[in-house]
Amino acid sequence: MDLAQTAKLIQEGQTALGIEFGSTQIKAVLITTDFQPIASGSYLWENSLQDGIWTYSQAEIFTGLKKSYAQLAANVSSKYHVKIETIGSIGISAMMHGYLPFDQHDQLLVPFRTWRNTITGDAAAKLTKLFNFNIPLRWSIAHLYHAILQKEAHVADINYLTTLAGYVHWQLSGEKNIGVGDASGMFPVDATGHFDQKCLQLFNDLAAVQKYPWQIEKILPHVLKAGTVAGHLTTAGAHLLDPTGTLQAGSLMAPPEGDAGTGMISTNSVRLRTGNISVGTSEFSMVVLDSPLKKVHQDIDIVTTPAGLPVAMVHINNCSSDINAWSRVFHDFAARLGLDLDEDKLYSTLFLETAKADPDAGGLVNYSYFSGEPITKTQAGRPLLVRTPNSKFTLANFMLAQLYSAYAPLKIGMDILTQEEGVTTDVMIAQGGLFKTPVVGQQILANMLNLPISVMTNASLGGPWGMAVLAQYVASGAQESLEDYLDKQVFVKAELMTLSPEPQGVQGAAHYLKRYQTALPLENQAAVLKDAVE
């Protein structure tokens, strides 16, 4: 599509906008009817540890929203010489789960508690037993019950509880709706795509809950499946998004989703027996189930696709943060030598060095824990590199250990699905920044998981593009299933590159994982010692 055609579509409002609030970046992507990105904008942000809680400030949520959209609008203006006055449809996605409670005056009662917090262990364990359904630490209901057990004063004033995506959607549309995928990270969802009625009643019947003036079903958002109109952009919402007043109200709003749901969309992994892996600050694998699991597993979440199909999810709190931190050290060192390396060149150079590594990373062990890691029962984050005097401490082994450690917790969780439950997939598609350097991160993941891993040619498009596709699906009228829509409309010309596990690499990764699990007590000891010093 040429510039003139694209400009015409923009003027006619034949566009869809996806905005995703990721862990380190808020990104906006605009697409047209051919699903190709025509403009984007972004805003960098970072969570902070405040009074023992991982959070982002409420003000920065909207600063980032405005700045990412403003950058996108400027991109459109400079490239196509038109302004965005109308948008056909808009979708908001964000980090799944977490805790955003509001009072009857729509005031946030406590700072946003993100997925990264691991303070809810007792509450999650009790709810898992009560529901006979795994409740992860980061789920909204675990945070709520934790606050109840801690007798936090704000709980009595809760009038509405939502996720980050649900919150931003509410501010733009005035509607308290949520997509079923994101909803399934708040509270158990049943086969109909609604909050499970039995679990709702069990929660309400708890003695600790009956002390409060609300019932759980009254304070949760309304759940919608993909393709359903979830509201319209209001005049106030348009001004919130674009304070210049250029953008007009009226855009269709898609059900807000979590980043796991948009990851499934951007990898076309919403059919039965398909799976995907997303890697970033955190990482997770998703497998769409064709039959129920045999039993409840503490480390396996049961969530849904944006269309409501059941999904087994392995969620890992920590992935690329330690790699990013070390890369900044190498960048600073290069700068001292007078070398100005851009980010892509730096990462590519470091990743390609792993070709010279020993298969087991030379005896090194690394823990990339910036926060607690539930799957390894690690309560607090302490990035840690361990080696013996006989370890082969080379740059190549160091970088391989970094990548192994990013994937190791995922392997531990995936073994539950593949070995204990016998779950298999027809395809496992990976996406995320670690795959921007071709082959390296993909092959190491295949070796660690001992599974073929595919990467799409559009792997860098990611969640915000996936959310824009969901918004376009709403605008299309959703006349066909989401699975058919993606296959027949969106991914018709998609290309995959698949890498199979290498026997030597699989053996090396297995040796590394054994050391990793053996030395885990060191990670927990480091947390205790650090706390003592503080």
From TrEMBL:
Residues 276-473 form the Carbohydrate kinase FGGY C-terminal domain. Pfam families: FGGY_C, FGGY_N. InterPro entries: ATPase_NBD, FGGY_C, FGGY_Carb_Kinase, FGGY_N. The keyword Transferase applies. SUPFAM superfamilies: Actin-like ATPase domain. Coiled coil: none annotated. This is Putative L-ribulokinase (Putative). It comes from Bombilactobacillus mellifer.
